[in-house]
Q: What sequence folds into this?
């Protein structure tokens, strides 16, 4: 009887669906129709309200949007449609896996701190892009691994007065 009960419990455990790990993706769009500083803010705000969107970084000068999202809950097509509904024209340029592992940075309390983190990291040779999620303190960095390492990124942030650590995937 004991062996049967153990077998039953084991089978039930195997049959119980396990929550899937959220995989983050990074979609990059070109965005036409932005003409003033309020345009990127309205697009980012609308995108960040969508299910599965972790962060939207929209830049007027680049006429581009980068959206970090859970690819199990959102699609690039729905993201583009959301931008289009606001009166802009979004064209998907690329979709890649989100940079992993993220850095965790303390002290991202205001816009100035976020911009400083972005400036510090973008000044490092080999860094191609930075997205900051101030709610969680996560910083996603796209970089050339043969030019710069996560240790270099952390050292630069610490030299700028931030406490930073590497996140686990």
A:
């Amino acid at each position: 009887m004991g062996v049967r009960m153990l077998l039953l419990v084991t089978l039930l455990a195997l049959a119980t669906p396990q929550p899937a790990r959220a995989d983050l993706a990074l979609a990059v769009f070109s965005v036409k129709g932005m003409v003033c500083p309020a345009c990127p803010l309205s697009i980012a705000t609308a995108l960040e309200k969508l299910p599965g969107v972790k962060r939207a970084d929209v830049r007027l000068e680049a006429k581009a949007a980068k959206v970090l999202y859970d690819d199990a809950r959102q699609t690039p097509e729905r993201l583009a449609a959301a931008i289009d509904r606001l009166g802009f024209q979004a064209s998907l340029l690329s979709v890649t896996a989100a940079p992993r592992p993220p850095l965790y940075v303390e002290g991202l309390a205001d816009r100035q701190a976020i911009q400083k983190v972005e400036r510090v990291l973008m000044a490092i040779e080999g860094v191609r892009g930075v997205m900051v999620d101030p709610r969680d303190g996560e910083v996603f960095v796209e970089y050339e691994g043969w030019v710069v390492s996560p240790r270099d990124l952390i050292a630069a942030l610490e030299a700028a007065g931030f406490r930073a650590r590497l996140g686990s995937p």
